[in-house]
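Second attempt. The first submission of Universal stress protein had a stray character pasted in from the spreadsheet, which I only caught after the job came back as garbage. Lesson logged: always re-copy from the clean sequence file. Corrected sequence (142 aa) follows.
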Amino acid sequence: MYKNILVALDLSDEGEQVIAKALRMQQATQARLHLTHVIEPISYAYGGDIPLDLGDIQQQLQKHSEEKLQKLIEKHTLTNSAAAVLVGRPEGEIHRYAEENDIDLVIVGSHGRHGLQLLLGSTANGVLHGAKCDVLAVRISD
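This time the job returned cleanly.
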């Protein structure tokens, strides 16, 4: 079955629903959990047109995200796990991490968008369409 499960989190409170599903999968398969969060570079938001030194802000975002992932590991007593904060486009970074770490299942949250919102793409949709392994989209209940 699954040996390495990647749990892609946005670090919101809704992520608890994704972790709950991941824990059930992990218990059933004894797989190793890899918790990840992807930060998009701040320069993406400005298209590189504004000459700002955003390095310190980017580092603070990364440190804050690493601390939140560590708290989740402690809260859920995840002894057989890894955590990584990645920087880049979420779909691409999730695919890259999955390939580099022999991930055989990616678990992501999904708000169950319909129609044009789904066609325009969400992170879950992007992960699904480029993944070389199984993807489980956990429907986030509002």
